[in-house]
Amino acid sequence: MTAQRSDAPGQGGLWGPELVPDSPPARTETNDIELIADVIRAAIDPGYVLIGPARRVFRRVDGTHKGARVDTVPTYEQDAVHQSLDAGHLTVGGTHIVTYGGRQGPANSVLVRKSSRAMVTRWGNYRALR
Q1: Which of 98, 81, 99 is nearest to 90 (CA)?
Q2: Cα(110)–Cα(25) distance, rounded to whole angstroms?
Q3: What confidence tens digit (pLDDT) does each residue in 46-59 have?
Q4: How much of the chain exceeds pLDDT 90, in percent?
Q5: Tens-place pLDDT, residues 63-101
Q6: pLDDT at 2 over 70
Q7: Sequence-distant (≥ 6) Cβ neighbours of residue 28 within 8 angstroms
């Protein structure tokens, strides 16, 4: 007797629940020193905030007062902020009320470590050899 092939997909989770990989969203990493330095400078002034469980990055527009307006940042800048957070150059601060798109809500501020400020200052003082 010959076995017939089935075109049906294989059955998942045969010996227990099917495991779904729990991985964070894919972000691109950069080795562009100038981009990282620009992100740290922007975190100092005007500043960044993180909104929602996905920790979307927004840049402050109106300052740091309650209800200050924020705007979105490009994807490459958002990835660089998260890379700097993961590397410890930036930290997540307290909760503040911000305005985005006419709505107010909570957001976590992004803080710059003293060592990161010194690092960016050092990088700015380097000169190319001629």
Answers
A1: 81
A2: 20
A3: 899 999 888 999 99
A4: 51
A5: 778 888 999 999 999 999 999 999 999 999 999 999 998
A6: no
A7: 76, 79
The answer to whether 87 and 29 have CB atoms below 8 angstroms apart is no
In this predicted structure, what is the pLDDT of residue 7?
61
Residue 98 one-letter amino acid: V
The single residue listed with the structure tokens 């989770």 is: 13
Which residues fall within 8 angstroms of residue 113, CB to CB, at 6 or more apart? 88, 89, 90, 91
What string of DSSP letters covers 8-19? SPPPS-TTSSPP
| Amino acid, single-letter form, for residue 74 | P
Rounded CA separation 108/100 (Å): 14
Q: Which residues pair with 110 in a beta bridge?
A: 92
Structure tokens at 32: 């562009």
Residue 43 has a pLDDT of 93
Distance between CA 44 and CA 64 in Å, rounded? 12
Is-contact 78 56, C-beta < 8 A?
yes
- Is there a contact between 70 and 100 (Cβ–Cβ < 8 Å)? yes
- Residue 59 near residue 42 (C-beta atoms within 8 A): yes
